[in-house]
Amino acid sequence: MFSQQKTYDVCIVGSGAGGGMAASVLTQAGADVIVLEAGGPWDNTKDSAMLTWPYDTARRGASSRERPFGEFDACIGGWDIEGEPYTRAPGTRFDWWRARMVGGRTNHWGRISLRFGPRDFRHKSVDGLGDDWPIGYDDVKPYYDRVDRLVGIFGSKEGLPNEPDGIFLPPPRPRCYELVVKQACDRLAITCIPSRLSILTRPLHGRPACHYCGQCNRGCRSNSNFTSTNVLIAPALATGKLTLVTNAMAREVTLDKTGRVTGVAYVDKTDGSNRHARARVVVLAASACESARLLLNSKSSLFPNGLANSSGVAGKYLTDTTGTDMAGFIPRLADGVPHNEDGVGGMHLYMPWWLDNAKLDFPRGYHIEVWGGHDQPSAGFMGGIESYPGGGGYGKDLKNMYRRYYGAAVGFSGRGEQIPNEDCYCEIDPDTVDRWGIPVLRFHWKWSDHEVRQVKHMHETFQALIHAMGGTPLWAAPGADEQYGIAPGGRIIHELGGTRMGDDPKTSVLNRWCQAHDVRNLFVTDGGPFVSQADKNPTWTILALAWRTSEYIVDQVKKGNL
């Protein structure tokens, strides 16, 4: 194995939200850092196809294996990566998304940037389910504030008790179809407020405001939306303190005879050689499941069940966001007058959780995302033209029908909280390895009745909204035998847990600083430390916790504790 002569202060595995933030904070504090990224180079200001028309390529923008969300999607990876399998226990399904590029999933995500609320850190104290976090909202709030100021986020101050306000840029005005949604929400007493997205509506730190091309998923050439690549990694490189190694597939975390980690062994994907990055501190930020895989594969006489896994909890209590969708035809939006419907590449309005679970048959909430209008070619024909009144035919009549119905559909996506359970976990498959000989993960998954009933409520709410707009659903809600259309585990790409934090080393992998109980110079800064989900997207909390952990590392080094 080739070992680099240099010993770095910190080795970080992964360059996404958690890894990028750790690299940014640590290099600015003066640490000498190496980042190992399993994917290749990527720069959204140069490599994006932001303004490329679908008809400019042979595939017409269609999806591919490495870009399942479309040929121009900024995220290279997917649920099915050649040479990188994973397995599922019989009778279960979990679909694992991996990003393979600098910046990771931050090149692809919808920029929905929501803080967890005070209740989200202590749900067990409220309803007796799951576990409370060892920290609370007040511990994380200063770091949420810093992330807001550094990255930039638009929104509105609403004073909702479990939907904390942030330091917001002005939100964009609602589009026509979103105003119709807002009217329906008001009739049904559903809270509907401006979205909170990490897209600039005012210049910030040398980055220009969004110019409303609506192509955020392709990678922003103007750097107006957030990616780790240019908001975190690029400034870290500019310090001269960061070494970025791409195509570096981490194999295991190494340690000495005293039980301290000494670095990370990895495969150079360009030539297949085995290499070793030496470091005094190791930070895993490879994604929740990938970091768990690294720990479980890092076996030794000191840790026969995997590194930092004396509790046996590594890989356990995985969660994902629950999700389901519905679209409706809204007659009042048909025959629309052509108009400017500019906006960001995402929704301008959304519905945070608005009900009291004590009055419902499921214990945790969800938020609703809105889509439709003229900003995407498929938005007007969700379900196919034949789903519309008189839809179908050919020739002139068909063309007129398309003109009439384009933009006349509105869609809703529910995104809810799963409660951790013992049936959702990952482990090392004893019989399967990837192309580099690294043992792969095997997933176990089961939605509980809590989540199934929650998704049923989502569908009922979507139908009520569509009817309140004077519309009709474009497809029927699934029945109970189909679990009400709940998406398979992993499909919403919000997997969390696997290296959860806690005060008790017997029931958690990490302490409240995301530091391994068993190994003091090992930390995790991705979604792995999360004790639970919330009815919010997790990226803003990953960023805030990574900043908090990185400052703790700096403090502990100064005190001589690492």
What does this structure look like?
The chain is an alpha/beta fold and 562 residues long. It has a domain at 1-85 and 95-154 and 217-317 and 496-562: 3-Layer(bba) Sandwich (FAD/NAD(P)-binding domain), CATH 3.50.50. It contains ten helices and 18 strands. It has helices spanning 17-28, 44-47, 123-127, 137-151, 176-188, 228-238, 288-297, 395-405, 449-468, 539-558, and strands spanning 2-13, 33-36, 77-78, 87-88, 98-99, 193-194, 242-245, 248-255, 261-268, 273-284, 322-329, 349-351, 366-372, 409-416, 425-433, 439-444, 472-473, 522-524. Strands 1, 2, 7, 8, 9, 10 and 18 form a seven-stranded mixed beta sheet that branches. The protein has a six-stranded antiparallel beta sheet with strand order 6-12-13-14-11-17, covered by helices on one side. Helix 1 (17-28) packs parallel to helix 10 and helix 4 crosses helix 10 (539-558). The longest helix has 20 residues, at 449-468. It is globular.
Would you kindly provide a brief summary of this structure?
This protein has 562 residues and is α/β, with parallel strands linked by helices. It contains ten helices and 18 strands.
Record field, number of beta strands: 18
Assembly category: single chain
Q: If helices are DSSP runs of H or I spanning 4 or more residues, what is the number of helices? A: 10
- Biggest beta-sheet profile: 7 strands, mixed
Tell me, what is the CATH class of the domain at 1-85 and 95-154 and 217-317 and 496-562?
Alpha Beta
Unreliable segments of 5+ consecutive residues: none
CATH architecture label of the domain at 1-85 and 95-154 and 217-317 and 496-562:
3-Layer(bba) Sandwich
What's the pLDDT, averaged over the residues?
93
Order of helical and strand elements: EHEHEEEHHHEHEEEEHEEEHEEEHEEH
Fraction in helix: 10-25%
The whole-angstrom Rg is 23 Å
- Name the structural class: alpha/beta
Shape: globular
Determine the N-to-C terminus distance. 26 Å
CATH fold field value of the domain at 1-85 and 95-154 and 217-317 and 496-562:
FAD/NAD(P)-binding domain
Strand percentage: 15-25%
The CATH superfamily of the domain at 1-85 and 95-154 and 217-317 and 496-562 is FAD/NAD(P)-binding domain
